[in-house]
Amino acid sequence: MKDFRHLISASAAVLAFALSATAHAQTADPQPAAGASEAPQTGGASSLEDIVVTARKTSENLQRAPASIVAVGGEELQNRGITDAISLGKILPSANLRTQGPVTQVFIRGIGSRTDLPNFQAASALLYNGVIIQRYGTFGLTYDLERVESIAGPQGTLYGGSAAGGAINLFSQAPKDDFSGYLQGIYGSYDTVQFTGGQNFAVSDTLSLRVAGDYKRRDSFYKNGLNSQNAWSGRASMLFKPTDNFSAHIFYTHGHDTGKPITNLVTNPPADPDHPFRLPATGAAGNPLNGRETYQDNRNDIVGANISLDVGDSTFTYIPAYVDFKAEYLYFSGAVGNKLFVYDRERQHSQELRWNGGLGPVKLTAGLFYLRNTTDFTDTQQRYTGPTTFTPVLLNITDQTNTSYAAFAQAILSVTDRLRITGGARYSRDKIVANGVGASGVRIAFDHAHSRPDYKLGVDYDLADHVLVYANLQSGYIGFGYNPDVGPTATNPQNPIVPESKLTAISGGFKSRLLDNRLEANVEGFHYLYKNFQAIQFVSATGLSTVLNAEKSTIYGVDINLRARITPSFSVYAALVLQHARYDNFAGVGYNFSGNQMINAPDVNFQGGIEKRFELAGGATLTARVDTQYEDGHYGAFNNLPTQRQDAFHRTDASLMYAPASDRWNVQIFVRNIENATVFTTINGGSATAAASGGLEPPRTFGGRLSIKW
What does the DSSP assignment read for 652-665? Predict the structure, then answer.
């Protein structure tokens, strides 16, 4: 904590010094970010760009939205090496993304779901072009993006139960009415090779097409071949605009991953802390531990559309989608060297119909939502008894159907030119029907539906021309689930229900542009009160998940985001999230976890960076960038045992990019995780006598990138 205070003090000093240097500002025009408004800025060449976001399901200036929203453009995503879902945590300070096999677990302000099983519903949402993507379908999406948006805090009225913690939206590049394109190649440590590209086709005045693709391969970080990478993804999209008031963006994405799956063999702390990627050659039973013993074959197919029709002052939006993904993988789970086999095939149909309009001083958003997801899930464990012998143990075979319906509405009343009041409501109905066999032969027979109303009340006020203050009161929930490891009884004809988690949230803050539009300061405080919070942790030794309900949990904190354009060629940013996430009342027969820190909920997360562009002879530029992150640590399980804790870490990325005056190409060299910090992708299991284990995020890596555009 002392080191962190020094870091904050140093960052504040740098920012203060940079702002004092504005008298020497250059006059070159700044480069607008993706998603930025093209309207001229009143602050001159050094002003920050306006960013338009749709996180609240309406287009609005980020600084005019009374919510904690972060938006990052596609060019910055490329320059910072954001190439998979877990790396989004580097750019979204409120988010903590973890992985369990190919599953992405999204936590926002301490709220998420710690399982890859179908019997529990998501707690924070990941969306792709407005389409909710389930657990296994999140790979192969983070390329050729226009922008990423994250909205923190419960979104019960606009998104429903899947967004109790918040939502992350990925938006792919839409086709343009020209023949522009780009191609980039990366080579780096561990023989990393990645090619990414996109090409537009202007077919006619009303029809444009775009194709994009991404391929990446990498050798293992581990000495035994585990967790190597071999994946590709392709996207085709069409933009049809026959009139000024109608547009249809239709997209199809296919991804295929046949690399070696992630491993959970690394003990916490690692057996060799100086070389955490060194693993034993054999497991506890003498069975070999290497990449040849594992495999994965994962794919996803996503087809969808964003169809928009303007009628007078109203806009109607229709988002139909079909998602089909298959995950099949065999990996080492737990330090003893047992294997876990998972097969999951899911097919999802979803539709959302939305209306945005107005009636006098009232802006309105209303919509209908439908989702149906069918799951074919198998989970088995190979428990080794000798070098080549093992006992197969069936953990779960489930056929399941999830169905959700919802109707929602939100109104913003302009009481005066400066004062607005927001009211919103949503009615949701969720249903799960499941049949199969759980652990120890337990029969799975579950059929349950539940309806849920949610609300939002808010007020925002323009304190000055570029200063907005706001406060919100809203509800949210995490949908119910069931326990597949406890079967039906004579008195209860189905598996026990895991009750829904109910949330009441209060938040408030301000958004501001200061110093002639060169400094942006956004601050939000929040207080969440949860009832029956679903606490879930995976036990790698058994391959099962432990599920308990914490009767009462509280999360409160503050979220600070700063950006400054010091000169047209010099920018800095800083983000700080301080939160206190604890189980207040979490006790039952044989356990008492009251007062423990919630899973994947660090008390402190700091992100900051600086970018400086140097003008060279002939109009060429050299751009230097440094980004850093500090986290004070978090727990991977609600027991809060010492071996279940991710230690505090600090990691820094740096890059240097050269571009000629034509800006038709550029070359970048980079280093990531300069400190070579040991950061777990997830932490599983553990007890008072046995260490927890997990996989690791990448160590220090170096590389270069060549980009060409036309």
Answer: EEEEEEEE-TT-SE
Residue partners of 227: CB distance under 8 A and separation at least 6: 220, 221, 259, 260, 261, 262, 263, 291, 695
DSSP secondary structure string for all residues of 346-380 = EEEEEEEEEEEEEETTEEEEEEEEEEEEEEEEEEE
CA–CA gap between residue 87 and residue 77 (Å, rounded):
10
| The predicted structure's pLDDT at residue 8 | 41
Q: What is the DSSP letter of 494?
A: S
Rounded Cα gap, residues 497 and 205, in angstroms:
55
Q: What is the largest CA-CA distance in the chain?
A: 83
φ/ψ of residue 24, rounded to 5: -100, 20
Which run of H or of E encompasses 622?
strand 621-631
Q: How far apart are CA 295 and CA 99, in angstroms?
A: 17
Q: Name the one residue in this structure whose structure tokens are 């890859």.
A: 116
Q: Which helix (H) or strand (E) holds 2?
A: helix 2-20
As given in the structure block, the two tokens for residue 457 are 């009340």
Look at residue 397 in the predicted model and tell me its pLDDT: 96
- Assigned token pair, 138: 């999140």
36: Cβ–Cβ under 8 A, 6 or more apart, which residues? Answer: 49, 50, 51, 52, 73
- Burial level of 10, CB count in 10 A (0-12/13-18/19+)? exposed
Contact status, residue 553 vs residue 598, Cβ threshold 8 Å: yes
d(CA 90, CA 625): 14
pLDDT in the model for residue 15: 39
The predicted structure's pLDDT at residue 134 = 82
Tell me how far apart the alpha carbons of residues 583 and 613 are, in angstroms, rounded to a whole number: 47
> Kindly report the CA angle at 685 between 340 and 687, in degrees rounded to 5?
140
Residue 580, both tokens: 């206190």
Three-state SS sequence of 580-593: EEEEEECEECCEEC
Please name the residue that has the structure tokens 């590389």. 703
pLDDT mean for each 10 residues of the chain (710 residues): 42 40 35 37 67 92 95 93 89 90 87 84 92 83 95 90 91 97 98 97 98 97 91 97 97 96 89 92 93 94 98 97 95 89 96 96 97 96 94 95 97 97 97 95 95 96 96 95 88 90 96 95 97 86 82 97 96 97 94 95 97 96 98 94 95 98 96 97 84 93 98
Residues 706 and 187: their CA atoms lie apart, in Å, by 9
Q: Which residues contact 497 (CB under 8 A, 6 or more apart)?
A: 448, 480, 481, 482
Query: C-alpha angle 158/162/165, rounded to 5°?
Result: 85
Alpha carbon of 124 to those of 18, 110, 160, 357, 369: distances in Å? 37, 10, 10, 28, 17
The candidate with the shortest Cα–Cα distance to 22, out of 515, 611, 566, 569, is: 566
Q: Please tell me the distance from the alpha carbon of residue 375 to that of residue 481, in angstroms, as a whole number.
A: 14
C-alpha–C-alpha distance, residues 429 and 501, integer Å: 15
The answer to whether residues 132 and 125 touch, using CB atoms and an 8 Å cutoff, is yes
Q: What is the DSSP letter of 597?
A: B
Distance, CA of 63 to CA of 78 (rounded, Å): 24
Residues sharing a CB contact under 8 Å with residue 16, sequence separation 6 or more, in sequence order: none
Alpha helices in 21-86 (DSSP H): 74-79
49 phi, psi to nearest 5 deg:
-75, 155
pLDDT at 45: 64
DSSP assignment, residue 117? -
User: How many angstroms separate the CA atoms of 146 and 208, rounded?
Assistant: 16
Instruction: Centre a 10 Å sphere on the Cβ of residue 297 and count the other Cβ atoms it contains.
Output: 14
